[in-house]
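Quick one, probably user error.
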């Protein structure tokens, strides 16, 4: 089915100047950018986005990292977009990510892991609405 998913290009990948290389992989996989913005997340924005991880031991480090520099937030649309994006990203821990995935190629640690992608339809809906108003999403023509 046609789906939307939220993608974040994280501060490590922005600092490495590989925004375009990462978006190019989405495009090659027939995922279309239907919304995008660059932003430097505040503490509150990062904590709210990752609220489901609040009790996890890595929460503080995660929020510190995600607020350490600008990110590029996008809504991607395409056939099976949620799973397609997760396949492109590879495993959360870049050491376990398959060769040729975004994390294998651009990430350096489990925190500085280059990209975030929604893990389910419910998360995608929440995460897209977290960053974008309806009128900031530009459906494919
Ligand atoms: P992300 O997909 O953005 O969702 C939560 C993030 O927490 C994850 O990517 C990792 O960057 C980070 N993280 C740090 N430690 C862990 C861990 N042990 N398990 C899962 N995620 C972790």
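Nope, works fine. Designed sequence:
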């Amino acid at each position: 089915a046609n789906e939307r998913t939220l993608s974040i290009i994280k501060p490590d990948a922005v600092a490495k100047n590989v925004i375009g290389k990462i978006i190019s992989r989405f495009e090659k996989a027939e995922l279309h950018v239907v919304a995008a913005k660059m932003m430097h997340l505040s503490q509150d924005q990062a904590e709210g986005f990752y609220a489901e991880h609040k009790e996890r031991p890595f929460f503080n480090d995660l929020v510190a990292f995600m607020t350490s520099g600008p990110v590029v937030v996008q809504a991607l649309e395409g056939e099976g977009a949620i799973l397609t994006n997760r396949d492109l990203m590879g495993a959360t821990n870049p050491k376990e990510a398959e060769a040729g995935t975004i994390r294998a190629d651009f990430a350096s640690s489990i925190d500085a892991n280059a990209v975030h992608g929604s893990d389910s339809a419910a998360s995608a809906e929440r995460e897209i609405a977290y960053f974008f108003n309806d009128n900031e999403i530009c459906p494919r023509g």
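The helical segments are 11-15, 19-28, 43-49, 59-66, 81-89, 102-106, 121-131.
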